[in-house]
Amino acid sequence: MKFKFILPSLTEAESPFWRPIKYSLFPPLGLATLAAFLSDDDEAEIVDQHVQKLRLNDRPDVVAIQVYITNAYRAYEIADHYRALGCLVILGGLHVTSLPEEAEAHADAIFLGPAEESFPRFLHDLKNGKIARRYTSRQRTLAGVPQIRRDLIDRRLYLVPNSIVVTRGCPHHCEFCYKDAFFTGGKSFYTQQVDDALAEIERLPGRHLYFLDDHLLGHKRFARDLFHGMRGMNRVFQGAATVDSILDGDLIEHAADAGLRSVFVGFESLDEGNLQQSNKRQNLGRDYQRAINRLHDLGIMINGSFVFGLDADDANVFDRTVQWAVDMGITTATFHIATPYPGTAFYQQMQAADRLTTDNWDRYDTRHVVFQPLRMTADELKAGYDRAYVDFYRWPNIARASLHHGAPKHQLKHFFYTSGWKKFEPLWNMVIQMKKLNVMTPLLEAVLSKVTKLHPTTPSSRSMLNPPELAAKRGN
Question: What pLDDT shows up at residue 443?
């Protein structure tokens, strides 16, 4: 049989602010994982519409489409097109799990939750000529999952073709996060076998890896064994961790010894009230500055994530946050407008309070305001968000933040990494058009090269989570 796996492009990928490099980073591993369950006599292709042209003049037997909230309308149009041709269409992903009734109108079958166990059941039913309307994840395990079909991925089209996922989900339960809705009805965090993860790493060419896991350090024993196994592999890698995992024990040192050079950290807010509202317990009472100093002492660059528009935020939050991030030497910052995704506790809260202002899923991209903020107007929130990006990535701020590091090599790494990510868009676009993005990967590896560990930084006498002005603000 002929299977066609499609990742439709996100709506924001076609906005005036579209940065092609942002959507050319990682291949769609979820679809490549499902393709691994096909039999040897099946034919398969994967189309990532962010980097490839989607042809609609074919008639595959089965069309599988991955649906996120901001590609939902496009996914439904593609699904309806292929169903009209007589193709069997299946839909899965975060949005399908959150709104199954909506998705079901456009598919012959839908998948709720992770599909490592349910997709093989679907293939069995398909072979026997009778498929179900819904396939819900019954068992959560990565044991026995076959090798990802990376042969279906054109590595030339991605800056980070060696993306990898060795866990599923996250042990935390932030109220604005899709994760709990997607993993409802079973385990919400589980890992590969360490040997399987190491074997997959061994198969990947080159040095650079990017772990797409929500929380690479979330299972301490697994992470420690993984990093121990990676020592001596001569890898450099990036991943995500939480503030508490960076401060707890010596796991982050083991990660650095294994090759961790850049980490995504969800600071989200400098206000404890916002963290409590979001159930961001892993950040409550944590010393942000001590975590940052620890990472810098290990030569690890930081991509900090921040959310604007939670109930404790007023119109001054943007300048405060940017100033703090620059003063702390954050390498890159990812800003978001708080977005209540369907299926999350945040969505339920906003819906119950009648604060949602649209159900147009195209606008649920963390760049638009889709609810009524409490302490500022929607226009102030949008304008402040836009300004935060401009201000953080101004040349003077890039230079100032880079000087936060003690070692000249680390200062240069910071400067080139930050400016290269935001200031050289024409170069990135040219390389993408030439379909030679992978030639930039060695440059990325060089920037991520090891920095000699510095003497430990003296911990701050007070937590940067609670600057005096914010504490006073909460007291009013």
Answer: 81
Decide: 340 and 371 in contact? Cβ < 8 Å.
Answer: yes
Show Cβ contacts of residue 386 under 8 Å, excluding neighbours closer than 6 positions. Answer: none
Half-sphere CA count of 28, side-chain side, radius 13 A: 25
Reported as a single tens digit per residue, the pLDDT across 395-426 is 999 999 999 887 888 898 899 889 888 888 77
| N- to C-terminal Cα separation, the chain | 66
Which residues, other chains included, contact 390 with Cβ-Cβ below 8 Å and sequence gap of 6+? none
Instruction: Identify any residues that bridge with 239 across adjacent strands, giving them in sequence order.
Output: 263
Residues 6+ apart with CB under 8 A from 168: 114, 140, 142, 183, 189, 190, 191
CB atoms within 10 A of CB 59: 11
Q: What is the pLDDT of residues 180-206, one digit of tens each?
A: 889 988 899 999 999 999 999 999 998
pTM across the whole model: 0.90
Question: Does residue 186 sit in helix, strand or coil?
Answer: coil
**pLDDT at position 439, please?**
82
Alpha carbon distance 307, 258 (integer Å): 31
Do 216 and 223 touch, CB atoms closer than 8 A?
A: yes
Q: What is the CA radius of gyration of the chain?
A: 22
Alpha-carbon torsion (363, 365, 369, 370), positive or negative:
positive
Task: Note every long-range contact of 203-207, with CB atoms under 8 Å and residues 24 or more positions apart, other chains counting.
Answer: 203/147, 204/162, 204/164, 205/162, 206/162, 206/441, 206/442, 206/445, 207/234, 207/235, 207/236, 207/445
Residue ranges of the chain with per-residue pLDDT less than 50: 454-476
3-state DSSP call for residue 435? Answer: coil
DSSP-derived pairing of the beta strands 260-268 and 301-308: parallel
How many other C-beta atoms can be found within 10 angstroms of the C-beta atom of residue 247?
15
Neighbouring C-beta atoms of residue 169, cutoff 10 Å? 21
Cα 357 from chain centroid (whole Å): 26
- Please tell me the predicted confidence (pLDDT) of residue 457: 42
Give dist(CA 350, CA 369) in Å, integer.
13
Question: In sequence order, what DSSP letters do the residues of 215-265 get, joined into one string?
Answer: -TTSSHHHHHHHHHHHTTS--EEEEEE-HHHHHSTTHHHHHHHHTEEEEEE
366 within 8 A of 176, measured Cβ to Cβ: no
The 10 Å Cβ neighbour count of residue 98 is 22
